[in-house]
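Morning run. Coffee first, then this:
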Amino acid sequence: MIRGLCEGREVTYEGAQLRLDWAEPNYHLPVWIAGYGPKALELTGRVADGAIIQLADPSLMSWCVGLLRQGARGAGRDPRSVAVMAAAPAHLGTANARSTRSAGFPPS
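And here it is:
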């Protein structure tokens, strides 16, 4: 519904027809979803333009991207059409142990 409104289309919400007169009809609103579980990742692959995954571990990222691509394929989309943003915490410092704790790793 939000995408339709922002892209200038008329949408139905609770029986009412809505349209934003100021919305540009040729605009594409990118939709990004942040999520980790299998259902959220599969949904993201089906409907979103991008995924925000707050992990840095390569094996976990691979698992997440696999579920995204599975969802995209199931919806008849090109799995490579869903962008992925790896947003992992980072902290720079001279004391390695303190920097590691400041970044929240290992999780407590």
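The mean pLDDT is 87. Good start to the day.
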